[in-house]
Amino acid sequence: MADTTKTTPKPTASVSAKSGSASGGKKKVYKNIAEGRLYVKSSFNNTIVTITDQKGNSLAWSSSGHCGFKGARKSTPYAATTAIERTLEEAKKYGIKKLEVYLNGPGVGRDATLRFLRSKRDFDVEAVSDVTPIAHNGPRPPKARRA
Asked: Are 80 and 46 in contact (CB under 8 A)?
């Protein structure tokens, strides 16, 4: 006697009418933000650039390492300029027109930032401030040497 159970075919994946794409993801909606803040953290080894809204929510970021530079090339002004350029291109999607610039750290990315923003007239720079922490008294000195 043969087994007479029937198997039903499994349903195949189809494009949803709501999403409009095969992956089922939604299109990203960018909020229109007029003013933003540009934070540049410039160390001796890397430059990290972040653009936030006025509340501090991160909108776009990049770094010299993120742009593909490795090793000693990360700490060059060209790498910093590339990181800033990539971040500002990403920020244009949000409609940012005015920027407040905050520079932090002793690296070469500080000067590259200012040079790039002066040459590009896409953004109106309202303020530039240096927020590098400065020690008022410094660490405790080593004890006196006995001879």
From this structure: no
